[in-house]
Design goal:
By secondary structure, the protein is mostly helical. The chain has one domain. 75% of the residues lie in helices and 0% in strands. The chain is built from ten helices and no strands. The longest helix has 25 residues. The protein is globular, with a radius of gyration of 17 Å.
Length: 204
């Protein structure tokens, strides 16, 4: 498919496939398989790694984390290696993965908070920035005991790093949009943090 129209078709099909991969609710599937439970009815009701860890144990939470991360990482790496490493096109795929995860058609357009999937996207796009944000997340959780706070600050740090390092407008804008989506899905956590009612990780 040569020419601009062929390029658009490849991008659209890739974005659709990335959205569908992103929408697979691995946390829910793992919980059903490993514990015969509906994770959406336990704890915070979220399908992410933190809630799965609290319900089933750390190893299942880590597995959920890795699978959710790969949903963002693998499609972008394949696209960049096999077709195009255009910042704009990779930004579109990254957003597709996150939106699929947060608004999964397999869960009536509900989903996870998108932290692991966002990390996977940024590991593919800007690995050094993603690793800095990951280290900042780990340090924040260690010092405060709040996974949600670490997630929010790491999500906010990525676009700041992109701006400081002179990343393209497409990538910087995408990082800002993804941070906003992560904040949106954490709105209940933000309220609990403000009220001093957020549950610490060590109290799982």
């Amino acid at each position: 498919m040569d020419g601009p129209h062929g390029s658009y078709i490849v991008l659209i099909l890739s974005a659709g496939a990335t959205f569908l991969l992103g929408s697979i609710p691995f946390g829910k599937l793992i919980s059903q398989w490993a514990g015969q439970i509906d994770i959406t009815r336990l704890g915070s009701g979220n399908i992410g790694a933190t809630n799965v860890s609290r319900a089933l144990g750390l190893k299942w939470g880590i597995l959920t984390l890795l699978l959710d991360l790969l949903k963002g990482f693998i499609p972008l790496i394949i696209y960049a290696l096999a077709y195009s490493d255009s910042d704009l096109e990779l930004a579109i795929l990254g957003l597709s993965a996150l939106i699929g995860h947060q608004f999964s058609p397999f869960m009536r357009f509900r989903g996870g908070k998108g932290v692991a999937t966002s990390l996977g996207v940024f590991l593919a796009i800007a690995p050094s920035h993603a690793l800095i944000a990951l280290a900042f997340f780990i340090l924040t959780v260690y010092l405060t005991d709040f996974v949600s706070l670490g997630s929010l600050l790491a999500a906010l740090l990525i676009p700041i790093l992109f701006i400081l390092s002179g990343k393209s407008t497409a990538l910087t804008l995408t990082a800002l949009i993804m941070a906003a989506l992560v904040f949106f899905r954490h709105k209940a956590n933000i309220l609990r943090l403000i009220k001093g009612e957020e549950r610490g990780w060590r109290r799982r």
